[in-house]
Design a protein that fits this description.
The structure is a single chain. This protein is an alpha+beta fold. The protein has one domain: Lambda Exonuclease, Chain A. Helix content is 38%, strand content 22%. Helix 1 packs across helix 3 and helix 5 (150-167) packs across helix 7.
Length: 302
């Protein structure tokens, strides 16, 4: 038996996805920011907007989960349309700098109104935190569930308000965020914590307008500051929303910017395709003319 150090066949789809991800997808309406970047780094969004070339090339391993998530999300939306009607990938625009698309949107009798559904495929660790399960050496125990990620809540809320505005519809007063995993709890683990058939792979939360609207409006205000910086020909600082207070204590006093360090241990920089460029450009505000970015070539230029 010989294990191929570099897979000849098994890595083919990951290699394909990595090649396809070399250029960021455009926003739904050509805006600077996208709903899916809610609470994220404004510097990264600016690099996208100024068409910077990636300095960190996507590796096959890193794109696998994103690719699987896309496939699962499409299958989920198709099943939801078959069961409930509605539409998938519904685009909308909230203002001049922010747009996106809803995973699913439609009318649900259970809520007597329009609903936005946001699907998030997560690793076992993130899913465990959401559903409230701790896995350890083949055993499981219950812990306090953290529920849906706050950025997914804000993203879904942006879709709800954006769809209202774009299509002049009745109010969208409910959003549902589903967190799913393909790393399903084993039979033994599920039995040890008396988990039901759904708990082992999915959990969902419903949020009312009173819950999601203040968060969305606060994030819009945060992004508006960065938008002004970008339209004046600058890269903004490496700002992300500080969610520590609301996540730890459930206390929300608005999303405030905090600057992150690309050479630190935060996960956002770890996945950023511009990390080396960002380190070179330095912290704080940077004139775009003084940035080390190289503009990526378009298909017609290649």
């Amino acid at each position: 038996m010989a294990i191929n150090k570099i897979p000849l066949m098994a890595g083919a789809v990951a290699e394909k996805w990595a090649k396809e991800s070399l250029v960021p997808k455009p926003t739904a309406f050509g805006t600077v920011f996208r709903y899916s970047g809610a609470l994220g780094c404004t510097r990264r969004a600016a690099y996208d907007w100024f068409e910077a070339e990636y300095t960190e090339k996507p590796t096959p391993g890193r794109v696998v989960q994103a690719g699987v998530g896309t496939i699962f999300g499409e299958a989920q939306a198709n099943a939801q349309i078959e069961k409930f009607g509605g539409r998938a990938e519904v685009p909308s625009q909230l203002n001049e700098f922010l747009s996106g698309s809803a995973d699913w949107f439609g009318w649900l009798d259970e809520y007597e109104g329009f609903v936005v559904y946001e699907n998030k495929l997560k690793s076992s660790f993130a899913f465990n935190m959401a559903v409230g399960v701790q896995r350890n050496f083949g055993k499981a125990k219950r812990i306090e569930p953290k529920g849906a990620p706050i950025e997914a809540l804000v993203q879904a809320g942006m879709n709800a308000l954006g769809i209202e505005l774009t299509y002049a519809l009745l109010p969208v007063n409910h959003i549902i965020v589903g967190v799913v995993t393909t790393e399903v709890l084993s039979v033994g683990m599920a039995e040890s914590i008396d988990a039901d058939d759904y708990e082992i792979f999915c959990v969902e939360e419903t949020f009312t307008r009173e819950e999601f609207e203040p968060l969305v409006k606060s994030e819009i205000d945060r992004l508006a500051i960065a938008y002004d910086v970008i339209t004046m020909g600058n890269l903004p600082p490496r700002w992300v929303a500080d969610t520590s207070l609301v996540e730890a204590h459930g206390v929300f006093d608005g999303f405030h910017n905090k600057e992150i360090e690309p050479e630190g241990s935060n996960w956002q920089c770890g996945y950023c395709p511009y990390r080396s460029l960002c380190v070179q450009d330095g912290s704080g505000y940077v004139r775009i003319t003084e940035s080390a970015l190289i503009r990526r070539k378009t298909e017609t230029e290649e």
